[in-house]
Amino acid sequence: MSNERLAVVTGASSGIGLAVAERLLADDWQVHGCDIRPPRIEHPRFAAVRVDLTDGAATETAARAARGASALVHAAGILRVGQLGELRAQDFEPMWRLHVDAVTRIANVVIPAMAGRRDGRVVLVGSRVAQGKAGRSLYAATKAALIALARSWAAEVVASGVTVNVVSPAATETPMLDDPARRTATPQLPPLGRLIRPDEVASLVSYLLSPAAAGITGQDIQICGGASLAR
Fold it and tell me: Parallel, antiparallel, or unpaired: how do β-strands 162-169 and 220-223 relate?
C-alpha cells in the first residue's frame, strides 16, 4: 500500500485508537491522529491533530483539513454509567458529542470526498454494549447510533467504492477501564477468559481498510471473545 494514503484516526492518543494508529503506520499509511490529549507516537508519517472533538466547529475545521483522507477510523470514546433514576444530562451530552456528533461532522466532509474519488474506507469503533446493558443505557444509545449511521452511510456510498463498517469489541484492555466515572461498573470477562486486546481490534480494522475487504460494508463485526455464543 502506498505511503501516500492518509488515514484519520480519532482517539489516537490511547487505547484502541493508539493501537489502530500504530498498526496503520506499520501498514505504511500516513496517519493524522485527532485527540485532545498529547500524542504518544513519534513517527515521520504521523501527524498529531490536537482537537477537542466535543467542539463542533473545531471538529469541522479538522475534518476540512483531512478532506483527502482515504480512511477514517473513529475510535475516540468515553464511558459514563448510571441506573435509571441517576441518569444525568451532563453524562450523556459529552458521550453523544464525542461518539456521534464528532464522527458525523467528520464523515460529512470526508466521505463525500472519498465517494468522489471512488475509493475509501470507514470504520467506527462501537461496542457490544450497543445491544443494551443494565447501567449503561446512555453509553449503549450512543454506540447503537453508530451502527445506524454506518448502515445508512454504507447504503449511500456503496456504489462509489466506499465501505463503512462498525467494529464492536467486548470489554477491552484500555485506560477506560480505570476511569473513576465507571464507579462500581466492573468489566465482565468474556468466555475467552481475558479482556480483548487493543491490538486485536487494530488487526481487524487494518483488514477492513485493505483492498481485500472491498466487499464488506454496512456490517457490525463483533470481537467478543465468545460472549455472543450463548444467544
Answer: parallel
Closest CA to 202 of 36, 41, 83, 60: 41
Q: For 52, phi and psi rounded to 5 degrees?
A: -85, 105
- Per-residue model confidence as pLDDT tens digits over 156-207: 999 999 999 999 998 888 776 665 554 555 677 888 888 999 999 999 999 9
Q: CA-CA distances (angstroms) from residue 108 to 61, 120, 209?
A: 12, 14, 19
Buried b (16+ CB within 10 A) or exposed e, 16-36: bbbbbbbbbbebebbbbbbbe
Task: Name the active-site residue from 33, 58, 128, 139.
Answer: 139
Best CA proximity match to 147, nearest among 123, 170, 171: 123
> What is the value of pTM for the model shown?
0.91
Neighbouring C-beta atoms of residue 151, cutoff 10 Å? 16
Cβ(76)–Cβ(53) below 8 Å: yes
Q: Is 139 a catalytic residue?
A: yes
**Residues 61 and 46 sit within 8 Å (Cβ to Cβ):** no
pLDDT in tens, 92-148: 999 999 999 999 999 999 999 999 999 999 999 999 999 989 999 999 999 999 999
Pull the grid cell for residue 97. Answer: 458529542
The residue assigned the cell 480483548 is 196
111 and 120 Cβ atoms separated by less than 8 Å: yes
Please count the residues of the chain: 231
